[in-house]
Amino acid sequence: MSPTVIILFLAIVLLTLVITYFAAKQTQTAGDFYTAGGGLTGMQNGLAIAGDYLSAASFLGIAGAIALYGFDGFFYSIGFLIAYLVVMFLVAEPLRNLGKYTLADMINSRFDARKVRGAAAFSTVTISTFYMIAQLVGAGALIQLLFGIDYWLAVLIVGVMMTVYVLFGGMTATSWVQIVKAVLLMAGMVIMSFLVLLRFNFNIGQMFTDMKTATSHGAAYLEPGLQYTDSLGTISLMLALVLGTAGLPHILMRFFTVRDAKTARSSVITATWVIGAFYILTLFLGFGAAAFVGESAILQANPAGNMAAPLLAQAIGGDLLFAFISAVAFATILAVVAGLVLSGASALAHDFYGQIIKKGKASEKEQVVAARTASLIVSVLAIVLALFAQYLNVAFLVSLAFCIAASANLPVILYTVYWKRFNTSGAVTAMLSGLISALVLVSISPSVFSPVEGAALFTGEPIFPLDNPALVSVPIGFLGGYLGTILSKEKDLRRYAEVKVKANTGYKASGSSH
């Protein structure tokens, strides 16, 4: 292993620990821990959102998917990019105006019911756990490749670091780690894309022409159908990606770190530009890896293709760029898992403990202690689960988290803000029907069962035909909310009028300047 790699890795680790040290001094209250006191600017929060959103699945998984499957791999980039429009136009502003620390706070602004909060918290923990497994799998594969250590030890190292960030620095440390990561990641993407285009003489048309003969797939590499031969399966995957973002707890939580809805909107605009540029550049990384690294070398390094980006860096930029990109990938994973730990811990500590068990009467000190204890519990759970998921493609794991978010959380968010007849029964029914249907369908899908030994978690015939069940589970979530509402006599139009005013104006919103 190159000394350059070691130096850059240690530099990243040292920088994040320094950030955590200073953040820990500012983290005294529950508000500091969960939302950094709501003091981030739009630019800062936009970069932090991008840092939170651009995960190992995006950087490692999508680059590998494009390298191995061409156009089909780029589906992930398209889905992740369009998804942010849903967040910007439908969710960001009302969420900031109605919420405080968690998604459950936002929903509870309309329904003062512990069962609603409990269902939202359970959904948050489930989604965060799925997503965190994906990040830890990517981290384990990367460090295993670079340091030659066992996978389990690599996962443990990342797990300990993410726990330290959240445990001591809370949202302030997490936000600044994400900001630094977003800047480094975009710098790395631009450098690699430039070098790839240089190899094609900055002629994008030539690049597409050359790619028709650069892989074993021939011209089919640039057409849909290499990975996704089932049109319904493709539609289902895109549905999960496009709608799931608006229901991801760790992304939604970021809108509480700014002081008002105006700043939340500017955050989303900044994030959308950064995220948009990133996903366009994934095309150059994927094509570059296919052309200059080769399918066999990518598969040899990691069967799921997760090492395509670092290997491309080595092929076109030598050991120095390889070390830089590997360090950036490491920072990427650390930033995202820290955000996920925080969202999962918030649901456990703030929603379950503070609001359900203590009925909102926990002292400030008790809340902070509970938040840090919950962070430890969530971290340990994610590390243990990640040890059994080594050979799954991280992009696939993330798409499952998106599916659950789209099925369980998004229907409730939209109904809460836009449907005046919506009630407590509808909220609980929507969340549980979306969550349970997504989990059950995944557990009997080709992602879990395959007749080919070793191709999935279990050997056997899948009962449900789609890898990603969003095409079925998202409608079930919306239908569950509708039926739960109309079959219940409960109705509070006055409360809805208050919520509608608050969602659109920010009146009496936590931290509002109005």
Entry summary:
With 514 residues, this protein is an all-alpha fold.
Overview of this protein structure:
- With 514 residues, the protein is mainly α.
- The chain contains 19 helices and two strands.
- A two-stranded parallel ribbon has the order 1-2.
- Helix 4 (56-69) packs across helix 14 (308-357) and helix 5 packs parallel to helix 10 (231-244).
- The relative contact order is 0.18.
- The model is unreliable at 509-514 (pLDDT under 50).
> If strands are numbered along the chain, what order do they take across the biggest sheet?
1-2
Strand portion: under 5%
Structure class = mainly alpha
Give the overall shape, derived from the CA principal axes.
globular
Q: Which oligomeric state applies?
A: single chain
Mean pLDDT: 85
Number of helices: 19
Query: How large is the radius of gyration?
Result: 22 Å
Helix content: over 70%
Distance between the termini: 56 Å
Order of SSEs: HHHHHHHHHHHHHHHHHEEHH
Number of strands: 2
Largest sheet: 2 strands, parallel
List keywords for this structure.
514 residues; mainly alpha; 19 helices; 76% helix; globular; disordered C terminus
Q: How do the strands and helices of this protein lay out in sequence?
A:
Layout: H1 3-26, H2 30-35, H3 42-53, H4 56-69, H5 71-98, H6 103-108, H7 114-147, H8 151-199, H9 204-214, H10 231-244, H11 249-252, H12 261-292, H13 295-301, H14 308-357, H15 364-386, H16 394-418, H17 424-443, E1 449-450, E2 458-459, H18 470-486, H19 493-505
Parallel strand pairs: 1-2
Helix pairs in contact: 1-8, 1-14, 3-8, 3-12, 4-5, 4-7, 4-12, 4-14, 4-16, 5-10, 5-12, 5-16, 5-19, 7-8, 7-14, 7-15, 7-16, 7-17, 8-12, 8-14, 8-15, 10-16, 10-18, 12-14, 14-15, 16-17, 16-18, 17-18
